[in-house]
Amino acid sequence: MELQAYFIRLEAYNYWANQTTVRLLKEGNREDEKLLAWMSHLLTAEQVWYRRIVDQSLEGLQIWNTRPLGGLQQELEENHTALASLVAETQDFDRVVGYANSRGDEFQTPLWEILGHLFNHGTHHRGQIAARIRELGGDPVPLDYIFYCRQNPY
């Protein structure tokens, strides 16, 4: 599998996992502060990385700005549209992206490593959300990549 096809698939998995998580939060009417904080952060981090990649300003983004449950679906859809377009249109995944982190430290990182981080970051926070749902007495759904692959053969 070529790198572009791989990232198209990872982005689709990320979208599926995010959709499933937001749906689970809505169905359980889960307004828990930690759950909303982690899902909001996950979505904002995707926007931060997207803007860094396309060299857009980060103005207005607050990495730990908790949003209400009702607004997460639209944000998720906007992220998916932007990221799906980015990976579908990218020809050079070795391209080096220059950016500064939240402390102002500057870095140069190949795009393929940034995308790997972006999708892995989401997995981390969805795991936190699943653990919290279980802690609150709920039953989270499996979101492992292999479950996505089984439901969506290549």
Structure write-up:
- The protein is 62% helix and 6% strand.
- The chain is mainly alpha-helical.
- The chain has a single domain, classed as dinb family like domain (Four Helix Bundle (Hemerythrin (Met), subunit A)).
- The protein has a two-stranded antiparallel ribbon.
- α1 (3-27) packs antiparallel against α3 (72-89), α1 packs parallel to α4 (111-135) and α2 (33-53) runs antiparallel to α4.
- The termini are close together.
Low-confidence stretches: none
- CATH C-level label: Mainly Alpha
* Average pLDDT number: 95
CATH superfamily: dinb family like domain
Largest sheet: 2 strands, antiparallel
Radius of gyration: 16 Å
Count of separate DSSP helical elements: 5
Which band does the percent of strand residues land in? Answer: 5-15%
CATH fold descriptor? Four Helix Bundle (Hemerythrin (Met), subunit A)
Element-level helix/strand string: HHHEEHH
CATH architecture: Up-down Bundle
Helix content: 55-70%
> CA-to-CA gap between the ends?
10 Å
Overall structural class, as computed from helix and strand content, comes to mainly alpha
How are strands sequenced across the largest beta sheet? 1-2
Number of domains: 1
Number of strands: 2
The rough form would be described as globular
